[in-house]
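Quick bug: F-box domain-containing protein output formatted oddly.
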Amino acid sequence: MSSNRVLTNIDILWRIFEYSNSSQNYHNALVSKIWSNEALSVLWRTLDSLLPLLRLLGPMNLVSKQDELPYYKYERLIHSENWVVFRRYAWRVRKIEYDDMSPHPKFSDSVFMDIIISSRTLSGVELLPNLQRLSSDDTPLIQKWLPLFFNKSLSALDLQASGSADMHLLTRTLSHLHHLCPNLRNLSLLTKLELDDAPQFNATLSSLPLLNEVELSTSLLCPATLSTLAHLPHLESFAIASIDPDEGSTLRVMPLSDAFSSLRTFSGDSVGFRSIVSFLEAYEPRELRSLVVYSTNAESHAAYQSLFAVVASACPNTTNITLQSLLVIDFEPPIVDPSSTPLLLTIPFHLLDLTLLVLSCPPPLNLDIGCMKALLAALPSLHTLKLIDEAGAPTLPLSALSELAPLCPVMRFLTLYLDTRHIAASAPPDTIFPCLEVLDVLTSPLESSARNVAIFLGSILPPKCVVIHLHHGDQMKWEPVVDFLPLIFELRAAKQGRSDAITPPEE
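Here's what came back:
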């Protein structure tokens, strides 16, 4: 009796079916009425295409014509009984997210015309009443028919228009958002083309006061659009993306006061540091906490300095900084000006709230003990430090970690390119990283014996810390180090236990 109650408990069934695959849930749906309802809800909750939904309204043919992509169309008109079947499943759909790894089915315009004509008897009824997230890169669908699937529950819309997109049609489509999707919070719109009606687009943005996260391509960002975004009251996350990494454009900004007052996360994907600096200088988002920039340029030492300086000035409470620039592969070792200031020493040390710092493929860092100590002493709150600079030979000795450990009271994740020559037999006492969980050595060459490296690391790392490395080529030499570390930790614990037993308690 109790097992029957468990197997008919909706909450338990939902948990079970969530971890079942589509094939298993298909069979689960055949067990009983209760199982069927819950299994079908999981099956239909997230779709990677509109095709399963549209097939509920009638049989479809795949039409192939010369010089055209194959597309689907209905064999006949949609009947009223088809709508009964459609509504039985449509209310279960919460997300439609296209899979980037597989080709997407195309549909004739007649498919959506048939839906419009046939659904006239359903006046006021939303096709997908519980749809919360919709993503699509089907440009004709986005331009013309997307409003068919809008509803008051929709909170996230992710669109990528490519090819011969008609920006006038797209802008007109988006103009329906404010009355069909009043609760929209997340909007992503990526395209190479520029808007032909920026005022209409800006009016659409300003009519969506609940927008919390926005991602737009640089082609859509004129000064007026940025001004509109700057005054959205609840905008906490803003991302700029460039569809064309080679465009090399700089944002056109117009300085404003009290702009982006609630912005906490700002990111740029395939956008140069110069654009990010222009944005931060113009708008000074004082509440910014997280900055993430992936540049397709080989950013210079001066570009990094400029970006750090403007962050310290405009966003002094920033806690997370992730910067990545283009890696330039050069077979000659980088030429370093010995009189230049190391990049790490240009980081403004009054960013006291900084907890995460990631620099990937920066100009040569030329790490040494002195600059690392200065950085860690000035930024005591860092729990994640990733310095991914693998150009040339490593300059920071592995043995320096024993001197850095006391300066890392809360460090959990550390990534460094290390020189493993001249390893000390063990570290001085009380030089253990207290909280470190992961030490990533990247492609650091192992130039000392694995035994010596493991013994040294075992004396400075906490027992639960994991050492990771790239698993190919010469980096496989690190495998014995990783395998030997647990034994080192056990021996250290045993030695510590004996020491505690011998030492008499203080009176």
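Actually, after a second look the formatting is fine. The CA atoms of residues 171 and 201 lie 6 Å apart. Closing.
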